[in-house]
Structure formats: C-alpha cells, structure tokens
Amino acid sequence: MELSKNYIPANTEDKWYKHWLEKNYFISNPDERPSYTVVIPPPNVTGVLHMGHTLNETVQDILIRKARMSGFNTCWVPGSDHASIATEAKVVDMLKHEKGIDKNNLSREEFLKYAFEWKEKYGNIIYSQIAKLGCSVDWSRTTFTMDDHYYKAVIKVFIDLYNKGLIYRGARMINWDPAAKTALSDEEVEHKDVTGKLYYIKYEIASSNGSPNAPGALNHIVIATQRPETIMGDTAVCANPGDERYAYLNGQSVLVPLINKAVPVIFDDYVDKDFGTGILKITPAHDINDYNIGLKHNLPVVDTLNSDGTMSEAAQIYVGEERFAVRKKIVEELREKGLLVKEEEYTTRIGYSQRTNVVVEPKISTQWFLRMKEFAQPALKEVTSGNISIHPGDKFNATYKYWLENVKDWCISRQLWWGQQIPAWYDEEGKFVVAENEAEAQKLFNDQYSIVNTRLKQDEDVFDTWFSAWLWPIEVFNGITSPGNADIKYYYPTSVLVTGQDIIFFWVARMIMAGMEYMGEKPFSDVYFTGMVRDKMGRKMSKQLGNSPDLLELIKEYGADAVRFGIMISSPAGNDLLFDESSLEQGKHFNNKLWNALKLIKMWAAKTGQDDNGHSLEETSRANTKSGTTTGSFAIAWFQNRLNEVQLEVEKLIKEFRLSEGLKTIYSLIWDDYCSWLLEWIKPEYGKSVSKEVYDAAVYFFEEILQILHPYMPFITEEIYHQLKDRDDDLIVKQFEETPLPNEEMLQLGSKLKDIITSIRDARNKNNIKPKETLRLYIETTEVSSYDSLQQILSKQINAESIKFNTTPADGAITIVVGKEKLFIETNIEIDLKSQKEKLLKDLDYLKGFLNTVDKKLSNDKFVQNAKPEVIELERKKKSDAQEKITMIEQSLLAIN
RNA sequence: GGGAGCAUAGCUCAGUUGGUUUAGAGCAUCUGCCUUACAAGCAGAGGGUCCGCGGUUCGAACCCGUGUGCUCCCACCA
Description:
Blueprint: H1 13-22, E1 35-39, H2 51-68, E2 73-77, E3 79-80, H3 84-99, H4 108-132, E4 143-144, H5 148-163, E5 167-177, E6 182-184, E7 189-205, E8 220-225, E9 236-239, E10 253-256, E11 261-267, E12 279-282, H6 288-297, H7 323-336, E13 340-353, E14 361-370, H8 373-384, E15 389-391, H9 393-405, E16 410-411, E17 413-414, E18 424-426, E19 432-434, H10 438-449, E20 457-458, E21 462-463, H11 465-469, H12 472-475, H13 486-491, E22 494-500, H14 504-518, E23 524-530, E24 533-535, H15 551-558, H16 560-569, E25 577-579, H17 581-608, H18 632-655, H19 659-682, H20 692-709, H21 714-724, H22 744-766, E26 775-780, H23 791-798, E27 800-805, E28 814-818, E29 821-826, H24 834-858, H25 861-866, H26 869-896
Parallel strand pairs: 1-2, 3-4, 9-11, 15-23, 22-23, 24-25, 26-27
Antiparallel strand pairs: 5-6, 5-14, 7-8, 7-10, 7-13, 9-12, 10-11, 14-16, 17-21, 18-19, 18-20, 26-29, 28-29
Helix pairs in contact: 3-4, 8-9, 8-14, 15-16, 16-17, 17-19, 17-20, 17-21, 18-19, 18-20, 18-22, 19-20, 20-21, 24-26
The structure holds one RNA strand.
C-alpha cells in the first residue's frame, strides 16, 4: 500500500485504540506477575477535560504503558467524581438558564434526576476524551463516586467513624457559601488580595449609667470596619485594657449607628491598640475572632444574614436586600447623617468559595465534623519515614508536614442534594441516631432513647465530595464494601498517584489517612505532582480569558500523539508549565519525521526485493563493502551502543519521574542519531540498494526506538511497527529486554566521526564549497587503524574522492583541527584562506585562554596538594592536550602565511 | 505575619555528593541548500556578567550569608 506523503493521525488513532480494546490489553486481573496500579484522579463531572487533565492523564498513561512493557500486570482504573458542590452549582445553573427551572421548585428526587442526566452526559464526554488521548485504562473497572457500592462504602465509613467517636455534630463557626447556600470546609475557601475600603464610623456614647464623661472625652468614639453592613450584628465594642484613651469608657455603652442599639464597651487583650482607632466592634455572628471574643465575654449572637446573603429580620433595616448592595447604602446613609468620619483604601485578604467564587461569610451553623488529629499522626509518618515518596519532594514535604501538624476538624456536611445523603435520623424533638437505614434507626431509637415507632426524618444534607473521594484507592477495588477481596489484596497499595499539587490537602493527605485507617497501609508508594498548566504568557487557563484550548480540537488538529508530545516536552515535574501550541507543532513535525523514516525504509525494502519474494539483494551499498568486512557494520555497531546508552538513560529517568527529560532524550536519539546519522550512513547511493543485513538492522533499530517511544506516543509507534512488517504481535505489549552496558570506545569513535564530518561540512560552508564538489582529505593522525571502519562512511558523508593518511597536501589546502588530529581539505577550486585563518585564530584564542586557566590551577601549590590525584591527572592531560593543539594550529597558521 | 520554591542564551528549561574544558538542549534567529524519506526538511553558524554583593574552598552556576525580583502555600488584625 502506498504511504501518504505525511502522517495522518486520524487514519490510525481510532483504529489502534479499537484494536487494543479488542485484544483486551487494558484489562487486568490478578495473576502471579507483580502489579503496577494507578487509580485515575477522577475528573469532576462538571464539564469537559482541560489541559491540566491532559497533562495528568498523559503522565499516567506513560507510566502505565512503560510498566506494561516491563513485565508488570498493569491496572489503571478510570472513573469520575460526582463533585458534589461543583456539579450541583452547574446543574442549578443549567436548569435556570436552559430550562427556566428554579431548583427551589423541584423536589429532591426531581433534581437528582436532572443531576444524573448531567452526569451521564458529561461523564461520557470525559471518558471519550480519555480514550481519544490514548489512555490505556481498564474500562471494565470504571468507577463513579456515587455508584451503588461506592455510596454504600461512604455510608459505612461514616457510621463506623461515628461509632468510633471520631465524628460529632455541633454548632460551630464555618465558612458559608451564600450562592450555593452550603457550608464549606476550610480548604474550599480561597483567599485573594482585594483592595477594599476601611470605613471609620462614629458610635455615640450612650452614657447609660449616668457616669460623667472623663475630662476631654468625646461624646462618641470612632471605629474602623471594612464591613459596615455588619454593624447591626454588633453586640459590643472592645478596646485593649491597657489603652488609656478608652479607659474612661469602662462600664459604659455605645449606640450602634442607624439602629441605635445600645451595646456594652468591653476590654480584651486581643485588640491591637495601634490598628485603626484601637477600638473594635464585636459582631459574633459574622467573624471568627468576634465569635471567640463573644464566647469569652458571654455576648449574644445576632445573625443579620440569611443563608442566601441577604439581610435577615435581625438586621432590622434593609431586610431582604443583598449584602454588598446594603454595604453601599449603609455607607451612604452614614455619610448623610455625618457618622462617617473617613474612608481609606485598604488591602486585605478575602475568602472566596472555590466553587462558586462568591465571598464566603463566616457563619455559625450546625454541621457534622470529623476529628482530624487522630488521623494526622499515621499519615504524617508515612511521608516523613519515606514510606511514601513525594515528587518533587523538596517542594512539598514541608507543606504536607505543616498541614498535618496544624490540621483542624473537617466539616463534612453540605447543604446540597447531589451526593451521599447523611445517614442520620431525627425525631421531631431533634434527637438523632446514625444508622444505615430507617429500620436500623428505629431500632437504635428504641435502644438509646426507649422510643418506639416514632416518626423519623433523615438528615437533608449530603457529604463533602472529598469525604467520598478519600476512599478512592480502596473502594475502586471494593475494599470497603467487601474487605479482603482478591482485587484489593492484589492491587493495594497502588503504585503511584499522579495529581495536581493544588489538592494535596483536599485529597492526597486524606487518602493517606483513609488508607491507614481502613487498610492499615499506605494507598500508594509514590506521589507525582504535576504543575499547573498556564498559557504561554504565564496566565492561568480560564474560560474568561479564552486561553483554555479544547482538547478534542487540539487532537483533531495535531493528533493525539502530538498533543501528548507537546505537553510532555515542556513539563518539568512539579513546575507550572507554559502551554504553547508551538510545542504541539513540534510534536506534529516529529510524527512526520518518523513517518518519513518509514517511507525511506519501505523504499529500501522495495529495492532490495525483500518486500514480496524475499530475494536477497545483488548490489550492496558503497558503505557496505570493504575488504571482506561489512562496514555498514560500524554504523550498526555504533548505533546499537548508542541505543543501549539511551535505553539505560531513559529507564533511569522514568524511574525518577523525569518524564520530560526522558522524552527529550528519545527525541534526540530518533531525530539525530537514527535519522540524521545512522540512516544517512547506511543510505545507498542513488539507484543502488542496501544489503539484507543493513536493511534488517535498520528495521530492527526502528522497532527498538519505536518501543522506547511507545509510552509517550502510542498511536504512531504502533502504526509504524505494523507498517514495517506484517506481524501478529503488537508493540503495546512488546516486552523490554535487559539492556547491556554500551561500549564506551564505540561511542567515542562515533562521536569522533560525527565531529570530523561536522567540521568538514562547516569548512565547506565557510569556504563556499558546494556539496557536489568532491574533495581530497588528508588526515594527520597517530591512530590510522581507527579509521578502518570509519573511512567509507566518512568519504560518503563529506563527498571525498580520496582520503590519505599522514601525507601533507600541496599548499592552499584548508586546515582544520579536530580533537588531536589535523585535517587538510584539498579541492579543485580556488580557496580564499581568509575565513579559515579567522577560524584558526579564534580556536587558538580559545585554547590559549583555556590553557591559561589550567596552568593557573596546576601552578597553584594548594591545588596540587589538596585536589584528588585523578583530578590533577586530568588537569595535566588537559594541559598537554591543549599545548598539542596549540602547536598544531600555530604550524597551520604558519603554513597559510 | 509565618513558611516554601524559583532566578542560567531572545523564549522554555537541563546542569544529580563543588573539579571532562572558558556552561548545555529544544524552540526562535542568521547563513547556505527545492541533495530522490522528510522545506512540517537538510547542512552549518551566531548567541550567556549562570540576578547583585560578600564569604567558604586549591577550585563555586552548584555550598553559606545577604540584597533584589518573581511565584506559591498557610494564617482570625478590625
């Protein structure tokens, strides 16, 4: 079949993915081989995959494919996360805008029906994207965090932890999201720097107890606040007890402006005398500090906000209006009434809901909490002991440690419908039990409260999505719902977790906790953190900026392999990566390079007559004959060693999770060593053909480099593997064999050959000698025999009509020094020696400078005394080498003049 | 306020116990090539005060201190 001019990904990608599926290569079952297991960080079913996912999935697929080709029983579990709040927000939004439905008018069941439809739709899009990218996941194990068994697992764990006394229910100050109308955990709040205003407001002194004002005292005080809309919730004002300016207020009250409510003046060390006016309004319902001071001083709590962020009845004024609108109105009213003393610009950090991006309100609310201290110790030890390795560790070990040492209780309840409903049952008086179902609950009511057959109502709330996600590496193998089953025993602990550094606390730390609690063992051995994908200007990808490309579009334009290449070539572990489509372009070019190498080899196959009839060839390439030995054999022997060198290096790099460097190494092996050197070296002259031996070697090496590249670029490698030969086996499962150490001498000989060729080509360029112009090469060397195997290649690559050793040419030849050898190039055309003289002078300059630094070292007594002998030996050698070269160049210069 | 990380070519980055040269790669740039696999290519070249300063050392891009500039995480000062 005729090969297309360029590689066309669309022709191969779906075909091979389908083939791999049909052959069940992705499916894993426990057997006697060692397992290599990865659980996918389940994408949220909130939408489609973005570039961050692309990077993550690619990394995982590379690791999995590499392991699959290295003798492991690989299992990559795909799935998705219901993402409670994030998805619910999306569904609510969709209902409102697309169907004109208000969530408040739906029953829980009706809403969940829509939510499941949403999940079905987006879950499937996500899965198809994962497939398009080539990910070799075991689809038979696809798990969703609200699957029946998974749902049960979450409930079971909650009940278990409750019975262990690790879960409690109570009123605490929590973060409230007024848009989603739910509590949030501390980790779901993002703090951003915001320039706001500090308003200085007058509070009249009420003088309620009739005591006279102190001398010089005013009839009002001034208090600074950023949130004037909260003043109606004030239940005291507070000064530092050591602050003499306010001592006179002891026992007095002040009036809250606008509503003229009298509140006491109290004193507490918490107040900083030097900030603002040194006096603080206390609003226990809406600030965590105020709440704590309130507790200490027994202050009442006046909650002036409704759950949706509007003012409540308790606020007395502006009831039902939105909080930020009210802020403006209150400032205006204060100004009109002369109660606003001044405003100043002020930068502060404000908490935003990670999911709805609205300003979070501190609010007192009854929620479920999980005690975390008990979990922190074992989870910390796994990492500090090195039992779990984090990559890159220098960056994250400290962060991990800090969080665990300062961990706070986890608010696990959410006022949402999308998620696992909390299995707590309440009677009409508010007594409750925790039970799997209502029947069980009735029984417990009987046992605990001696109440029989009362009307029970299940808790309306659901769990934080992370309260299900933390069980992921266990329950994808049903480890909670059927402990000790064959899968969990075989696959747990998993090998590596690949995820974003932004969820180290949300998820990574908590999975380790759950693993220790429920399996008594870590959930994974390594954690590989990828950085954030930004655009090439370093900005975060976002819909608003329009800089977040569509994965399927990219695959359509460049092909999945090129997308994988592009994202991997620029992604050092743990650092943010700047995504630039030009790297995908590079990937596309790389595909094409491979494709063209294939075309070349197919052409040879046709010429050698090996394609159909298996004829051996009659003619051999010029590079292939020399006195009975095949010198194609040098090219072949050299490449074999170079290949071994790269194989070992890539092996090491992947083991260290330095995937980007691994790809660069492979890229260079293929483009430079295989295509630019090897294929050119063994390429026959026009009209001639290659020997069977050389042809076979070229094919064999092609297969080898395809194998190394396969984990990174699975589609094109599989395609070419099959284009090279008709075969029944597939590259995806081709096993790597043990790699022998490369022969250093051979590698050096190859480098020497390359250097000579490059130097001569440079000289051709500089002296304007056309490639077609033949030249006569003279080599001054002490190692003539080393050229035995190089000569044929050399003369072909530089188009030499003759090569002579240790014979001096006539005047007018170009002189080049390569290593410790002197080359003379003689041609039939007139040469202007100026440029080569310049080159020699430049080389001379460099060498003299270099010699100088070496000399300085060697003439330093301290160096000679202290340095290691081998270092000194090396310096001596550098010195003599440099001297030798200098002499050679000086002689050459003399000859020119 | 506390902590972490980073700063090397125009850009993105390597540089793994301090000594293989006066520091490397890819991309970009420049020069020459429509050479029969590949112009999405080939051949070649140029390009750096390793952020500043000080120190340790025979020797520093690398270790220490300090300054500057970025980035991120954590934290309850209105």
